[in-house]
Amino acid sequence: MDQDFIAADKQYRNRFLLITIGIIIVLSLILCFVFPAFQDWLTKMEPEKGMKVIATALFILFILPIPLGFKMLSISNRILRDQCYPPEGMRVLFDTNIIRGDKAKLRAYVFLLLAFLIFFISIFCAFSVQIFLKILTTTRSFT
Hints:
Blueprint: E1 5-6, H1 10-44, H2 47-63, H3 66-82, E2 84-85, E3 96-97, E4 99-100, H4 102-139
Antiparallel strand pairs: 1-3, 2-4
Helix pairs in contact: 2-4, 3-4
């Protein structure tokens, strides 16, 4: 790795863009077609049961970013091990300058901090939604 930068992997970039566009299209379709049907289904059920369904859906939604946190932990470990960012063998979307030494360590610690923030925020939001909806259903009468 004597070069000053790592060249972009064009196939990786194209696959990444295709997957991103696919996810955006699928989420748009879900918002357009599935969400109104879900909303109608919720309005027809009992309020307590509807709140449990919403709480479960929000719990799942807030837990989804956790694998990203694990990926960031993995990248952080590789950066600390190699003392180089991007680590050996990592594919990049764009031409990326190689960072070595203390700057690479700092980059690894930033990834580590972001990973723990993702974990904390995801878990906190998932459980606080559960607690908030439980408080809401016990203090307010729906009839």
